[in-house]
């Protein structure tokens, strides 16, 4: 199976997107990369990240998020899943990029999606370390699921009639309420075959008043850049996958991060030993 190095979705996003080439402004993907201890970032991103780190335990949040994504990837593979769709893949940071070695195994097909062309360009370069001809990198906006699901990248790489692991970690909190993230996730969920797995992690509202004040201050910082954050309650996030079979993930939760995973019941694939 042969694919182009980088693709775009069939339809242009329906929402305005930031000017990613403005390196003088902080960028959410590069800030997350800094928090993960990698180098796909600029001095501006690092300065912004340091301001956020005064308010939130960013390194712990990143650590928990990566551990959750890693566990879900291996859980799905152990249950026979051989197709992965990664929404909002972010920069190929060191901890996250270790997934690529796993996804480069023979027989595994993967599509990485991000709407930041700098991110997808970085992925194109980085995946040369772990080449997989059955993978694709797609520059597209996850808020347009129909464009992504019908894109050449997805249709030529994934068989949506067979189970898929959908990873949407640390990305849906970038989708504001007015764009209806629950409906967006439901569109992806409905497109997946029985036996599929879904995993989401999301910034959440903490229980302690002091933590709540710290989070509010951090969210105010993000309102000053083109990619603000929206924290949501654990109940709201659980409701997004409430009609599926839950997979316990509480051990990855923290005061500011909630992880939810579920299995779409039905005909499953054969488990792998």
Automatic annotation (TrEMBL):
Gene Ontology annotations of biological process type: methylation
GO molecular function (one): methyltransferase activity
CDD domains for this protein: AdoMet_MTases
Matches recorded under Pfam families: Methyltransf_19
Entry keyword set: Methyltransferase, Transferase
Superkingdom of source: Bacteria
Secretion signal span: none
Coiled coil: none
Protein name (Swiss-Prot/TrEMBL): SAM-dependent methyltransferase
Source organism: Amycolatopsis minnesotensis
């Amino acid at each position: 199976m042969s694919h182009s190095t980088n693709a775009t979705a069939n339809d242009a996003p329906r929402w305005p997107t930031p000017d990613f080439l403005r390196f003088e402004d902080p960028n959410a993907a590069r800030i997350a990369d800094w928090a993960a201890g990698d180098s796909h970032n600029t001095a501006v991103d690092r300065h912004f990240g340091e301001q956020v780190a005064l308010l939130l335990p960013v390194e712990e949040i990143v650590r928990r998020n990566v551990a959750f994504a890693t566990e879900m990837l291996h859980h799905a593979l152990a249950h026979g899943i051989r197709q992965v769709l990664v929404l909002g893949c972010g920069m190929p940071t060191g901890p996250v990029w270790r997934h690529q070695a796993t996804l480069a195994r023979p027989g595994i097909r993967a599509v990485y999606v991000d709407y930041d062309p700098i991110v997808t360009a970085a992925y194109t370069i980085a995946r040369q370390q772990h080449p997989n001809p059955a993978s694709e990198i797609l520059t597209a906006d996850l808020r347009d699921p129909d464009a992504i699901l019908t894109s050449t990248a997805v249709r030529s790489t994934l068989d949506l009639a067979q189970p898929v692991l959908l990873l949407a970690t640390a990305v849906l909190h970038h989708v504001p309420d007015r764009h209806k993230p629950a409906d967006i996730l439901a569109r992806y969920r409905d497109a997946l075959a029985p036996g599929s797995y879904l995993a989401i992690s999301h910034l959440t509202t903490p229980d302690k008043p002091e933590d709540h004040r710290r989070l509010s201050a951090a969210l105010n910082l993000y309102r000053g850049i083109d990619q603000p954050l929206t924290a949501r309650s654990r109940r709201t996030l659980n409701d997004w996958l409430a009609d599926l079979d839950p997979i316990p993930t509480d051990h990855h939760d923290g005061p500011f991060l909630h992880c939810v995973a579920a299995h779409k019941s039905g005909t499953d694939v054969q488990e792998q030993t």
